[in-house]
């Protein structure tokens, strides 16, 4: 997508003399004026979006659009549909929620075994209203839009790129109304949305709690205790009334300027993103990595990680093997945990 943005900013996408070359670069059958205009529009949205989730969403919209103009990959679609079928059961979705909840509770118990006060702070941070509000908003946004902040590819995007069914049924249905598609074509993407929402909910809860603990220990190193330490943690987390108000006003201003969607869910998400972007970036990165490992959605590492990468490469090269080995990373992470 970097090359697409570069070419669009240089005005090359709209240059008719470069149509054939651009079509080859983008993997398109042909470059039409309509496609060029749409790419320029999407790149403009990327350029004006603030750094973070909303810029990533605009990048995903661009890659989705280009994928929709390319030759339809039947094998990728069949694999994606097959995996959606595997994960579509209510019991599978429930197990995902139960497993994530167990991992959260288990982490607190482990902390309590070594230091009960650490566990108390952990559970206190989990129950913080700002943490709960942010985590719930993130999860609901994945369900609502299909944009998962953790990635921009994979099986879920193949299904998200389908605007309607092969059979023509459900044509014209938008948003959540697509669930009424009688061909069940559009429901497949909601399978991955539900799994993603469950992971995002619990990983964000853990992420914020771990950051809180980091900042508490930093406050203690500075010799702060009691209410002074609590105040220092709130300031470092950006959860003071002043910081929340300032972030909310900035998010509303960006919405009014067209940098982000001008709706309540987007403003809420952007508010919490602004708050987190003001924190120590190293603490945020370490906490996020720790949370993904606890929920087992991280990229596998070590010897098992090397095996997982080899398997994933093999599955990409020989798609039919996905029917034999549908899940790799989660299984690898489970083995590592064991």
Give the SSE map.
Layout: H1 2-9, H2 19-26, H3 33-48, H4 53-69, H5 74-87, H6 90-114, H7 116-126, H8 129-145, H9 155-160, H10 187-221, H11 226-237, H12 241-256, H13 264-277, H14 281-295, H15 302-317, H16 329-337
Structure description:
This protein is an all-alpha fold and 338 residues long. It has 16 helices and no strands. The chain has helices spanning 2-9, 19-26, 33-48, 53-69, 74-87, 90-114, 116-126, 129-145, 155-160, 187-221, 226-237, 241-256, 264-277, 281-295, 302-317, 329-337. Helix 6 (90-114) packs antiparallel against helix 7. It is globular, with a radius of gyration of 22 Å. The model has no long low-confidence stretch (mean pLDDT 85).
Structural class: mainly alpha
Let me know the average pLDDT: 85
Encode the helix/strand succession as letters. Answer: HHHHHHHHHHHHHHHH
Overall 3D form: globular
Q: How many extended strands?
A: 0
Count of helix runs: 16
Strand percent estimate = under 5%
Unreliably modeled segments: none
Major sheet characteristics: none
Distance between the termini: 38 Å
Helix content: over 70%
The radius of gyration over CA amounts to 22 Å
